[in-house]
Specification:
By secondary structure, the chain is α+β, with helices and mostly antiparallel strands. The chain has helices at about 30-45, 55-75, 85-100, 105-115, 120-125, 130, 140-150, 195-210, 225-235, 240-260, 290-295, 300-320, 350-365, 370-380, 390-395, 410-425, 435-450, 460-480, 495-500, 510-530; strands spanning about 160, 165-170, 170-180, 185-190, 265, 270-275, 275-280, 285, 320-325, 330-335, 340, 345-350.
Length: about 525
Amino acid sequence: MTVLQDREWAAFTEDGPWTLQRSTIRWLPLAVPLRTAAQAEVPSLTTAGRVPPGRRVVRVVRVLSRAVLPWLWRKRRGRFASPADSRAEISHRLRVAAEQLGPTYIKLGQIISSGEGLFPPELVSEFKKCRDQVPAEPFEVVRAVVEADLGARLEDVFAVFERTPLAAASIAQVHAATLLTGEQVVVKVQRPSVAGLVRHDLRVMAWIAPFLVGRIPIASLANPPALVELFAETIVEELDFRMEAANMIDIAAMLHELGNHGYVVPRPHPTLVTRRVLVMQRVSGFNFDDVVGMKDAGIDTEEVVRTAMVALMEGAMVYGVFHGDLHGGNLFVLADGRTALLDFGIVGRLTGERRLAFLRLMIGATTNDVKGQMSAMRDLGALPLDTDLEAVIKDLRLDQPTIDPTTLTGEELVAEVQRVVKALLGYGARMPKELMLYVKNMVFLDGAMARLAPDLDLIGEIAKISMMFAERHGERLGRELGIDHRAVELNMDGVKASFGVDTSTDQLTYRELQARRDLIQKRMRDHVGR
């Protein structure tokens, strides 16, 4: 029976199969040097060479051409009944192509699948299949990896090891198992050749990316070489499960220190963790999309969303650590309403000045300090250090009253998006890794609200959370920033502007916000489809 030692410092479940003592976990001290080495490798993986990096380039071009060209031929000849049918077909073709090309491209698909509201719904829906419906490795391959990494036969470690995986994704697949000592676990097993293939694919992407600058619409929204670098910074840390297990420890400890009782983390095994194998406690609960099941069980789904928002914000602002890949497949809601976090391969880490810059960005958003927000964006690395902030504010018209986007025509909306993108690119704007992960998580939570809390008052909720932050952390954060936290005044005008509503608006439910977005997107689609 588990005693409470590890629950005194970490957000673990009460009924753990073993007790963790940080000082005796053999793989934990390796995490920091492994993380440093992984990030040091990124420049060599993302520097474009003069010649194509091998035959892989030919295969990538061939597979993508087979996916796109037939669709393009049908589109140009008006063979689709509607734009939605066209988007559905190209989404399906791209998802199949990603699976054919393997782990790196599947991972890109997973990132897209978390972008509800940023990408067409057909594309998001199709790429959700990349989360856990990727073709699995044969069992004998899985056995070979586990036995090689653990240095023992499967039967000498596990009483039961299910041959069929619970889920299979880009980097790894997960199997249910039972240890010889009786504990029920899940075993995450890395695909055997994935590490080398990902590194080779990153070199291919780095070589192709410069040719995409300004050539296709989606690439014009950002600097493709910078996006490859951003993607590389994220994925290289997923290739060693000892880093992931250490992330589990860090997040669990952070949640406990914050007093966040709405989240729990499965315990990684103290010894059965290697580069390619991760054994952890098995937890179960409601799928994050199972709204009916949760409500029937008496779970407050609004509180589930609220807990997620607070944990993400507190982790980033106070401790500089947060789960970097929230999506429905990585969250289980337990019967008591708490949420179990899964899959810690991607974790955002804001350290030193970057965390303080992020903190200033968040405070600026709730005090309507536009220049403070731009200064924080610069210090986060989103803008060059020599950027003229006043010019940015003027060019983006952030110093002018908010224009309600629902009052604009489709042509005006498209023109406004193009104007903002052009201005940002002109200033050399980029998306730092940590900010990208945070925004991606917020996009996921935005979509979760549509299912779990459609009638939640967003303006009131943000104000409530901001006041909670001031009461709980104001003194400490004010001291770190060198300001008097008592002099900080809440001003929701900037938040309202981000929603595109007038400053006189006092209440806005998610359902109302989504109706506004649907109208805006329809007008833009109608204009582009002319």
